[in-house]
Amino acid sequence: MPAPLVVGFDLDMTLVDSRPGIAAVLEALAAELGVEIPVHEVTSQLGPPLDQLLAPYLPAEEIDAAVDRFRALYPDLAVAATPTLAGASEAVAAVRAHGGSVLVVTGKHEPNARRHLDHLGLEVDTLAGDVWGPGKGAALGAAGAGVYVGDHVHDVAGARAADALSVSVLTGPSSREQVLDAGTDVVLDDLTGFPAWLDSHVLTSRLADLEERLVGLGSVLVAFSGGADSALLLAAAVRALGPEHVVAATGYSHALPAAERDPAREFAEGLGVRVLTPATHELEREGYRANAGDRCFFCKTELMDVLVPLAAEHGLAAVATGTNADDLAAGFRPGIRAAADAGAVRPLADAGLTKAQVRAASLLWGLPTWDKPAAACLSSRIAYGVEVTAAGLARVEAAERGLRALLAEAGTPVRDLRVRDLGADAARVELDADLAGRLAAGDPLAERVRAAVLAVGFADAEVDPRGFRSGAMNELLPDPERWR
Fold it and tell me: Does the keyword Kinase apply (predicted)?
């Protein structure tokens, strides 16, 4: 897996607008000390340590005491008066959404920095205070931060000291020209643009990781179903290795809908790779036919038993599957275990690419599969415990084909559609949620949908009012942990 995402943020004028609170403390401090402090001027230059900000207005021997008094006054006068800057909460949430850790590295006195975070509800994993400029590099490096976001040229220096990517926001005293001259990598007007930038950065990083992994293989046979995941993997392999070092292999069996075959072959041929369509014989495996919770293990084992020798025959170094990072996180995936047992590699998952990122990358690369609906094998429509047979698979395929034709004729577009064989000749139809809701509410089309399913041999059929749900059959499995 790729290195964990760790993003550091400065605090003052990056996450929070500390000017009102600091102004209130400075005014109280000036009144106590009987000195003139140009509050507006000082708060317009926030960033350097407090002793540097006070140095022009106090004798050197009085500064340490003034700093101590400032910090004592701070909790009561500054914390409640300090709001977050636009986009701050969303920026932290964006890091979390990518499974990352959030670090705050600030020149502010650490106890007061903690008070701000707690008061504003900004949850961070690590806080390092009382550090400034290049000195921030040690805290960033210790946490493994790959990105540091700040508003000052000295924040750029901190990022550089940690060999982290520097992202500058223009909400503090440093101008665009100043942060660019200091060597920042990215400039944003404010944090509202950070989530979109982070999405792009993470995707770019993970695609680079994917390319590196594929180059390391040298050559590869891609287990190609024609779906979005394996399509991106195939395209990435061609980019990394050249089409002469890549082969697409699609296992043909009763479980692969006929409608999926030609589009898959045409996509692969369009990339310039050899396309192999070996037959697989899942139905000859007792465990597959029995259709217990580990059915996918036997299916994938059959596929690997065909593809691994095929890769060796064609002089290819590895067999790769389109498993993505979300598949690994889902947990209940016996097929993934079977592929791993056979020595197959999973470059998408190992690069950390999620399903959403697979689709985003596919759109970026202009692949027609970027928005292709999930298309699991036909056996996934058969309820666990109901024997999988060629006739049963054909009946489900015919029902889905008939329903798509019916809905197209009725001018009712549908994206996701499943006919689930529940056993005892009963079927459940899952459709896009809005369409399922219409049918459940009494749309006349509901009876035609039911009739189309009955026409292929089911004795009973119902439309699930909850709509399509990927992996819905797993909901009926009493103990999925048993099959992992």
Answer: no
**Residue range 114-141: mean pLDDT, rounded:** 94
265 with 339, same domain: the answer is yes
| Whether residue 448 has pLDDT greater than 90 | yes
Residue 339 lies in a domain: yes
Q: What is the torsion angle, in degrees rounded to the nearest 10, for the CA atoms of residue 419, residue 322, residue 242 and residue 314?
A: -90
Question: Is 212 among the domain residues?
Answer: no
- One domain, residues 321 and 390: no
Asked if residue 132 and residue 172 are part of one domain, the reply reads yes
The whole-model pTM stands at 0.87
Q: Which CA distances in Å does 339 have to 69, 131, 336?
A: 65, 49, 5
Q: Are residues 10 and 150 in the same domain?
A: yes
225, 355: one domain:
yes
pLDDT class of 40 with cuts at 50, 70, 90:
confident
Determine if residue 16 is left, alpha or beta; phi over 0 gives left, psi from -120 to 50 gives alpha, anything else beta.
beta
Chosen domain end from 201, 233, 258: 201
The total of structural domains in the chain comes to 4
Q: Are 49 and 101 within one domain?
A: no
Whether residue 71 is found in the same domain as residue 117: no
pLDDT tops 90 at residue 11: yes
pLDDT at residue 480, rounded to an integer: 53
Q: Is residue 370 part of a domain?
A: no
Which residue range forms the structural domain that includes residue 339? 218-364
- In 10 A of CB 383, how many CB atoms? 17
Is residue 1 one of the residues assigned to a domain? no
